[in-house]
């Protein structure tokens, strides 16, 4: 029996290196330690061993079992390593240069925003910014927006929890925080920071509860303009916006101011433009922004005396301008991060 054991162990050691797969391993293992395996067979025959030889024989069997187990463990470890290597694929060299060497560019919305900022800077505007979290005071009250205005409804704006602490935006009274619904908030914040002359543009992100579709997104961008000084008139507004439209959409573009209503301007207008060189949109009046003369109540809320100063303001969606300029017919493309779309504007 001892010789048999020696032969079994030797057989296992000889065969182990040739085993390549789990199936081969299981089949081989069965011939040794399975119900009809050679090692099992030796153990079954312990009964035939004379009593006095039993302890020595038992030790031999244990030794043989240990040797077989060790050999099997090595085989399994080797197979697992092969399986892992197959899953990982060929080795990579992390020191090689990246295969995609294209340089990134500004997002199309950022490109249009930059173009507008450059334009307004050239004619004396500076860039002002304020926070995206706002209080009802700056978003509505100070802008003369009445308490029954739809934007003030929970269903139309993103209000924040009452117990929220925002260290850099302080509340005036018992009011709520919300995500700003327009960049007009920056009008008030700029007026409170400095006396006229004030000439700023304020680009930034705004938020409204909208179901996304081709022209609506709950998160979008606006650019606001404000000019307050002595003797600012509607003519200044019209000339500035005319210059804006001609620079962005080409010198042949025409503009018109159409009477409208905003609580924070009086009188208020929509600015439309028409261009002969706009592809499908050529020669159609397109509405691009709201504007008007700053309402005296808004001046007061901004700490400016409306008897001394007048001003104009305008506000527009950057996406709207970008869509017209770039020929994009669905606002959602701008937010999907599809490189095939973005690359067209690189
Ligand atoms: N805040 C307005 C909106 O989001 C846009 C606007 C209209 C801004 C007229 C202005 C303005 O500054 O004068 O719809």
Task: Give your account of this protein's structure.
The chain is an alpha+beta fold. Helices cover 38% and strands 19% of the residues. It contains 11 helices and 9 strands. The strands form 2 sheets. It has a 7-stranded mixed β-sheet, sandwiched between helices. Strands 2-3 form a two-stranded antiparallel ribbon. A hairpin with a 2-residue loop joins β6 and β7 (265-274). α5 (108-122) packs across α10. The longest helix has 35 residues, at 54-88. Bound molecules: 3,4-dihydroxyphenylalanine (DAH).
Descriptors for this entry?
346 residues, single chain, alpha+beta, binds 3,4-dihydroxyphenylalanine
Query: Which of globular, elongated, flat, extended, rod-shaped describes the shape?
Result: elongated
Outline the low-pLDDT stretches. none
- Give the bound compounds: 3,4-dihydroxyphenylalanine
Number of helices: 11
Based on secondary structure, the structural category is alpha+beta
Q: In sequence order, what are the helices and strands, one letter per element?
A: HHHHHEEHEHEEHEEEHEHH
Radius of gyration: 39 Å
For the terminal residues, how far apart are their CA atoms?
81 Å
- Binned, the helix content reads 25-40%
Strand adjacency order, main sheet: 1-4-5-9-8-7-6
Largest sheet: 7 strands, mixed
- What's the total count of β strands? 9
Strand content is: 15-25%
Arithmetic mean of pLDDT: 94
Topology (SSEs and partners):
Layout: H1 2-15, H2 22-33, H3 38-44, H4 54-88, H5 108-122, E1 126-127, E2 133-135, H6 136-139, E3 177-179, H7 185-193, E4 198-207, E5 219-229, H8 234-249, E6 254-262, E7 265-274, E8 286-294, H9 296-301, E9 310-317, H10 318-326, H11 339-342
Parallel strand pairs: 1-4
Antiparallel strand pairs: 2-3, 4-5, 5-9, 6-7, 7-8, 8-9
Helix pairs in contact: 1-4, 5-10
The structure holds 3,4-dihydroxyphenylalanine.
3,4-dihydroxyphenylalanine binds at residues 182, 184, 224, 262, 265, 290-292, 313-315.
């Amino acid at each position: 029996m001892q010789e048999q054991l020696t032969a079994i162990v030797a057989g296992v050691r000889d065969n182990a290196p040739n085993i390549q797969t789990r199936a081969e391993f299981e089949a081989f293992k069965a011939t040794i330690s399975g119900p009809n395996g050679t090692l099992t067979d030796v153990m079954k025959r312990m009964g035939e061993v004379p009593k006095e030889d039993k302890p020595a024989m038992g030790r031999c069997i244990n030794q043989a079992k240990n040797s077989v187990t060790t050999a099997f463990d090595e085989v399994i470890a080797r197979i697992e390593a092969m399986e892992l290597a197959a899953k990982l694929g060929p080795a990579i060299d992390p020191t090689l240069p990246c295969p995609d060497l294209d340089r990134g560019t500004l997002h199309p919305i950022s490109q249009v925003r930059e173009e507008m900022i450059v334009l307004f800077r050239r004619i004396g505007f500076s860039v002002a910014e304020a926070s995206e979290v706002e209080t009802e005071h700056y978003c509505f009250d100070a802008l003369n927006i009445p308490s029954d205005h739809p934007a003030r409804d929970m269903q139309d704006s993103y209000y924040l929890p009452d117990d929220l602490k925002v260290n850099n935006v302080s509340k005036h009274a018992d009011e709520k925080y919300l995500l700003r619904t327009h960049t007009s908030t920056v009008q008030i914040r700029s007026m409170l920071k400095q006396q006229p002359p004030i000439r700023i543009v304020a680009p930034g992100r705004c938020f409204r509860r909208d179901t996304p579709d081709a022209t609506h997104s709950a998160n979008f961008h606006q650019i606001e303009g404000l000019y307050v000084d002595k003797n600012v008139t509607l003519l200044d507004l019209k000339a500035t916006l005319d210059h804006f439209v001609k620079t962005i959409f080409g010198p042949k573009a025409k503009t018109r101011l159409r009477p409208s209503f905003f609580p924070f301007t009086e009188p208020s207008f929509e600015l439309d433009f028409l261009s002969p060189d706009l592809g499908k949109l050529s020669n159609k009046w397109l509405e691009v922004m709201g504007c008007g003369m700053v309402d005296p109540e808004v001046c007061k809320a901004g700490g400016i005396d409306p008897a001394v100063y007048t001003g104009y303001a305008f506000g527009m969606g950057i996406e709207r301008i970008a869509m017209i300029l770039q020929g994009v017919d669905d606002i959602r493309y701008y937010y999907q991060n599809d490189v095939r779309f973005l690359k067209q504007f690189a």
